[in-house]
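Why does residue order matter? Because the sequence determines the fold. Keep that principle in mind as you read this record.
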Amino acid sequence: MDDGYSDFYSVVDLLKAMNGAGVRYLVIGRQAWLLYGLPVQTFDYNLWVDPAQGNVRALIEVAEPFGLSPSIPEEALPRRPFFRFENGTRIDVWKVREFALVSGEALRFETAYARRETRRDDARGLALPVPCITDLVFLKRLGNRPKDREDIRMLQALTAGGPGGKEA
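Structure:
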């Protein structure tokens, strides 16, 4: 029976397994916002993973027992920056070394990972790596739609000094 919660708990278990396997990743998108306490709704997950081949391989191996496989053929993985896991809950996986704006400003995975925050959900035994708010703002700037600009204002409200300010 699909009670609407089983997919959520599968994702929780997947994230625990990723942590246990040492997969280097960041939860990005609105799931990260929820971890910062922002009142948003979302049903999908967005992950930015270290694109090193061994790390991506570890992620795929961890996902297999959950019935998840990449949305693209395995032989295409090294050439593609993005793939998706889908099994009731959609998990978008970005495996790029950096995201860059048209202006040339860029955010490298290593930089974002070094500045990450760990958000804990003790009730579920989870510790999730999320970008700092400044890096989440950068990631929202990639879209630059009216919705993205409104989202940026919400994120900046969490900082004491606005963009680039001290993390809340």
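The chain has one domain: 6-131.
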